[in-house]
Amino acid sequence: MNAFSILETTKLTSFDIFLALLDADRNQAGEEYEKLRRRLIKFFEWRNCEMPEELSDTVFDRFLRKISEGEEIQNVTAYAATIAQFVFKEYLRSNERQNQLIEDAPEIQNIKAQEPNAEDEKSSQRLACFDKCLKEFSEENRKFIIAYYDTDERTMINSRKKLADDMNASLNTLRIKACRLKAKLEDCTVECCKK
Predict the structure, then answer these.
(1) Based on the domain organization, do 43 and 68 belong to the same domain?
(2) Per the confidence metrics, is the pTM higher than 0.85?
(3) I need a surface site. Which of 29, 87, 114, 148 has the fewest CB within 10 A?
């Protein structure tokens, strides 16, 4: 007896039918649902989508709507993957439209059209001074300070552990060296900007 013949004999919700499609045993169906949900979240995460959980919920909402409309589904995973592809394409189109609307906004156009202001000039000067001061470091120290700070939050710990291993030093020694070099770089940059 499949999920649709069950529907004919009792009044089940589309979610009940969905669970029955996943597995006849309700507990096992719940576990299968969680596995599928995690896979969908990963699908959206791997594609750098914002709010992958919400996009996964959208997939389930559409899946349940198709069930309530009487759609006969043979392979739950394949069907969910197909819906996920459509949701992802819609997400991309939506982001493109939002970005275009932002770019076309009069306020953005006004900002783009304005001449560089004093703050931009200060930023340029600070950046030029920073580059000048960084060039005054030895090549070894310059490479070290760039490697130490040139990382994002997700990879920072592993990156710094690898750097410590490459230098045959402890993480604490690495931190102390980075702080000393950073202080010198900041002092040099401040002095340069005063000129």
Answers:
(1) yes
(2) no
(3) 114
Q: Using an 8 Å Cβ cutoff, are 15 and 7 in contact?
A: no
Contact of 147 with 169, CB cutoff 8 Å: no
Residue tagged 């156009």 (tokens):
109
Are 99 and 159 found together in one domain?
no
What is the span of the domain harbouring residue 173? 116-194
| CB neighbour list of residue 39: distance below 8 Å, 6 or more residues apart | 77
Which amino acid type is present at position 136?
E
**Burial classification of residue 84, based on how many CB atoms lie within 10 Å of its CB (0-12 exposed, 13-18 middle, 19 or more buried):** buried
Q: How far is CA 22 from CA 6, 10, 64, 119, in A?
A: 14, 18, 13, 59
Co-location of 63 and 95 in the same domain: yes
Tell whether 111 is covered by a domain. no
